[in-house]
Amino acid sequence: LEVLDESHAHAGHAGADGSGFGTHFRVRIASPFFTGKTRVAQHRLVYDALQDFIDRGLHALAIEAL
User: What is the pTM of this model?
Assistant: First the structure.
């Protein structure tokens, strides 16, 4: 699992809160749970796990599922 906060690169864009962190992330994740699942199903698993963060203002999430 690797989590990168890319919020600073989105200053002034939709969803940015002006703080420069905490709104735009890239997640690189590998899991045996992804085996045999479509990319959409893999992304749904990640979104389900992060729902609390989405509810608190996570605006954009780039997912690299392996």
Answer: 0.75
The model's pLDDT over 1-26, given as tens digits with 9 standing for 90+, comes to 999 988 866 555 555 455 544 678 89
Alpha-helical segments (H) within the chain? 39-49, 51-55
42: left (phi over 0), alpha (psi -120 to 50) or beta: alpha
Q: Are 10 and 19 in contact (CB under 8 A)?
A: no
> Which element (helix H / strand E) includes 61?
strand 60-65
Question: What does the chain come to in residues?
Answer: 66
What is the rounded CA–CA span in Å between residue 7 and residue 29? 19
